[in-house]
Amino acid sequence: MSSIRAGSPGATRTCPHCKTTILESASVCPACKHHLRFDSDAAASKLARSVPLRVEGTIRPQPTDNALEYSMVVSIRNERGEEIDRQVIGVGALYPGEERSFTLAVEAQEVKGYRAGKGRSRH
Fold it and tell me: What is the superkingdom listed in this entry's lineage (predicted)?
């Protein structure tokens, strides 16, 4: 586990467990759920988190003899509509009688000690 690092909002690092790019401020990796450092304010910070966007859905192939291939793609756009990130999250196939459910959630947390207009990251 690493010590607490001071960084600017949006600063990233790599999870030592799963190698996913995560926020530098994260005490738990959102991808693999491994604890990265001890956070004495974890209970308080958990309360300060919000989920401003959550979308759920299920897909099923039509009752035919054909399989249905899918690709789950997530893209992030800035305020000007420019795409700043695009990731293929998963791919697969569905056969008649199968289904897949998908959930997209954006988790947000207020950054303490940061004042608006004072330095910004590209994300």
Answer: Bacteria
Question: pTM of the prediction?
Answer: 0.62
Least confident of 23-27, 70-74, 91-95: 23-27
Closest CA to 2 of 37, 47, 45: 37
- Burial of 88 by CB count in 10 Å (0-12 exposed, 13-18 middle, 19+ buried)? exposed
Q: What does the block give as tokens for 84?
A: 């700043």
Q: What average pLDDT does the structure give for the chain?
A: 81
- How many whole angstroms separate alpha carbon 40 and alpha carbon 50? 19
| pLDDT value of residue 1 | 43
The number of CA neighbours under 13 Å toward the Cβ of 18 is 12
Is beta strand 100-109 parallel, antiparallel or unpaired with respect to 49-59? Answer: antiparallel
Return the SS3 of 43: helix
Higher pLDDT pick, 99 / 3 = 99
